[in-house]
Amino acid sequence: MERSSANLWRKINSRYNLVGCKCQNCGTLYFPSRVVCRKCGRDSKITEAKFSGNGVISSYTNIRVPPDSFKDEAPYTIAIVKLDEGPSVEGHVVESGGEVKIGSRVRAVFRKMYVEGDEGLIYYHYKFELV
Amino acid sequence: MRDVAIIGIGLTKFGERWDCGLKELMVEAGIAAIRDANLNSKDIEMIYGGTMASGRFVGQEHTAALMADQLGLHNIPAVRIENACASGGTALREGFMAVASGMHDIVAVGGVEKMTDVTSGEAATALGGAGDQEWELFQGITFPGLYALIAKRHMHDYGTTEEQLAAVAVKNHHNATMNKYAQFNKEISVGEVMKSKVVADPLKLLDCSPISDGAAVVILAPLETAKKYNDTPIKISASAQASDTLRLADRDSLVELKATKIAAAKAFAMAKTSPSAIGAAEVHDCFTIAEILAMEDLGFYKKGTAAKAVEDGETAIGGRIAINTSGGLKGCGHPVGATGVKQAVEIATQLRGEAGGRQVNGIEKGLTHNVGGSGATAVVHIFERYN
Amino acid sequence: MLYGIVGYGVYFPVYRIKVEEIASVWHEDAGSIKKGLNITEKTVPAIDEDAATIAVEAARRAVSHAGIDAGEIGAVYCGSESHPYAVKPTSTVVATAIGAGNNVMAADLEFACKAGTAGMQIAMGLAKSGMIRYGLAVGSDTSQGRPGDALEYTASAGGGAYVIGGGKDEVIAEITHTLSFTSDTPDFWRREGASFPSHGGRFTGEPGYFKHIIGATKRLFEVTGMEASDFDYAVFHQPNGKFPINVAARLGFDMKKIENGLVTPMIGNTYSGSSMIGLAATLDIAKPGEKILVTSFGSGAGSDSFAIEVTENIEKNRGRSVKVRDLIEKRKIYVNYSTYLKNRSSIRKK
User: Fold this and answer.
1) Which of B104, B113, C186, C295 is most deeply buried (CB count within 10 A of its CB)?
2) What is the pLDDT of residues A23-37, one digit of tens each?
3) Does ipTM surpass 0.90 in this model?
């Protein structure tokens, strides 16, 4: 799917570096970042927070029928990773070689998410690798 | 608040409807419902239309006014409802509220989706919009992928097996063979499900509901005057809805849909009844694991025990509770915007005693459960016979 | 005041292809190729890796090895001959992905296989002049070899990154001198828009590689008054496993001084990463007080020569980054030729 340059750019720090947020009112951490804390509502005090990218897999799947924009990548492994700091994120697990398990430890790496044809933008993103 | 009844139902045949565009599907179901209610088009005061992604599927937005126009409903107010795969169920709830409030007497509720004019890749992208576009679809996480993440965790936590998931598809295909509106008309075996192509493990092609065209319409009226139109009005005894995070990773638990649990609790309270009183339920089996979750989250089974119950035949017609007698999304087809309304049509058919070979005997109450996305919306309705 | 290397990091993909696998496609004799090039296998990028992702991974390791705040990095230079974009810098991707902030000088460099060491020289100059606190120089490539070309056996993927700065407590290896030797030599080139480089065959040897490496190194000897015997280790650009051994002998270095830094036989020629990874492998085992000669080579052509002296600080940073030898051995996934083509996006689904 074609996206605008601004769409890529807007979240670039989150996509590259797992920058989310923290509510200073209650201490809850979020990734991706939110404008309003789920617990505090109008009393939210949101500030930026960077996540380490270390975590544990809470579930995973191997996607064999991909959306069109990922057809050259398939099959690829997707996991829900519970980050050590608390929040859970979805992400690719690279070079998993069928060794992914619920409970596997992972760390964040930097990869291409997808490429818009021969002339479009390249979307870089966090992914995960097994530790 | 007034009691509300369904006084008319209409369906198209679901499936690959190469002969029909969006308009033809709407009209086929709409006219059937208007006739079923013994009404004329001019009797209808308002229409709610559930459509998920007509813009992406056929380039058409503004579908409710189009529906009113094509059905010859003249200049009545028309509102499109989009709530992903729960668009139909949500439209029904909106229609229910319009009649219950006294604002309108006769309201049509439609659902339609024309999905087969695009490639399966384009359809997958359109449906992916029901999840978190920025953080799920962006990363190539498909809908089967999201439910596969749920399934994998459910298997891990409760020992649910792939064969048990397959049993859901086998049952629903069997039910569909007795439904002339269903997309599929063919029995399948657990072995065939197990051998079908892996889409997102552990989910295989035959664990997934199909891409379908179809429409469904119900006509609502105040219960007190319902018998004027129809000898067998069906009372809507509860309408409840809840939401949750769009992003699966944000949920507290991967093995339940909290929105379903909340909506179900509200619905049972509103109808002053309990899961054990339900004779037939149409639940949202977009994937086989989704039916297992629904059975548990709606309160029919304790968490972790539903899969075995399906395998043991407890949810077949004639079992403890008949689930997805229409064939469900899996066997009957899943034109997304139409599904929630079709579920109501099926339960109304069962409560009228008109379900033929798939009739559940002695049924007094039925339930529908319609889910949007991976669980960010759940709509539950409870229906009962009105004598 | 000391100036030089404050931290370093390397990265290369886990995928490998063996010489035998490539040779079997073209009905070549793998044995003679392995012997002739002194190479057994090479790294292959994953389908989602490119020179930018490799640069980021190496740079992140370099920053954590240095133990500095990335916000103090004032310049980022990324050298590659396979920058993912013709126009849109790799260096901005790297600067953002390491969290260097906006107050950074940045540019992409291209000088065939020596763009990374050229970045080290620039960063060194900026740090020494006081214009920046730290500079980051990266060399990374997913280098191209035309199917069937001799380069196909060696052109691999990988990268090295160096944090350059000053300070007697921070510099782990002082760059005591650096200079270059440059000439217009058409030994190897790739035109704008061309998918694969072209080269002058055996012409790339004497007038290219050997003339420039020997030229730069001899001049470094002259300027510094040092000679081969003053160095404990030497690292030369490694387009294959043979050339660096040959040039070392001609400059008076025995095999023992270069073997630690000779990585091409196991991972192939990582182009802009090559001499930087060789230096990293050497720093992994070097002790305080030891001296290292590094001379890179880039076609077109030129060589950058560095005289480096390891300081006491190197011991403080040990263990903060994975060692090159461990990276080589730790995890390998061998691929066949068709997967290799797919990962390089040479074959795609419609």
Assistant:
1) B113
2) 999 999 999 999 999
3) yes
- Yes or no, beta carbons of A127 and C48 under 8 Å apart: yes
Asked if B50 contacts B26 with a C-beta cutoff of 8 angstroms, the reply is: no
| Separation CA B46–CA B44 (nearest Å) | 6
Are residues B355 and B215 part of one domain?
no
pLDDT confidence of residue C87: 96
Contact C65, C317 (CB under 8 A): yes
Task: Give the closest residue to A42 by CA, choosing from A22, A19, A29, A23.
Answer: A23
The contact set of A with B (CB < 8 A) is 1, 11, 32, 58-71, 73, 76, 78-80, 87-92, 102, 113-114, 125
Q: How far is CA C132 from the centre of its chain?
A: 23
Q: A42: distance to nearest CA of chain C, Å?
A: 31
Of B121, B125, B152, nearest to A60 by CB-CB distance is: B152
Domain encompassing residue C130: 3-172+315-343
Task: Exactly one of B154, B173, B334, B381 is catalytic; name it.
Answer: B334
Q: For residues B93-129, b (16+ Cβ closer than 10 Å) or e, as one string?
A: bbbbbbbbeeebbbbbbbbbbbbbebeeebbbbbbbb
The yes-or-no answer on residue C212 being catalytic is no
Q: Structurally, how many domains does chain B consist of?
A: 2
CA torsion angle C152 C153 C156 C160 (round to 10): -130
Residues C87 and C233 in one domain: no
Assess whether pLDDT exceeds 90 at residue B230.
no
pTM: 0.96
Q: Do residues B177 and B225 share a domain?
A: no
Residues of chain C with pLDDT under 70: 350
Cβ distance of C48 and A72 shorter than 8 Å: no
Which of A73, A80, A87 comes nearest B149 by C-beta?
Answer: A80
Are the CB atoms for C303 and C218 separated by under 8 Å? no
* pLDDT, tens only, A84-112: 999 999 999 999 888 999 999 999 999 99
CB contact under 8 A, A110 and C85: no
Whether B107 and B79 have beta carbons less than 8 Å apart is answered as no
* Residue A1 banded pLDDT, cuts 50, 70, 90: low
Subunits that touch chain B (at least 3 Cβ pairs < 8 angstroms)? A
Query: Which pLDDT score is estimated for A2?
Result: 60
Summarised one tens digit per residue, pLDDT across range B97-123 is 999 999 999 999 999 999 999 998 889
Do residues B150 and B250 share a domain? Answer: yes
B81 DSSP β-pair partners = B50
Same domain, C85 and C166: yes
Q: Is residue B85 annotated as a catalytic residue, yes or no?
A: yes
Average pLDDT taken over every residue of chain B: 97
Contacts of A78 in chain B (CB under 8 A): 139-141, 145, 149, 200
Q: Does B243 touch chain A (CB under 8 A)?
A: no
- And the tokens for A23? 């509510």
Q: Report the alpha-carbon distance of residue B342 to residue C278 in Å, rounded.
A: 67
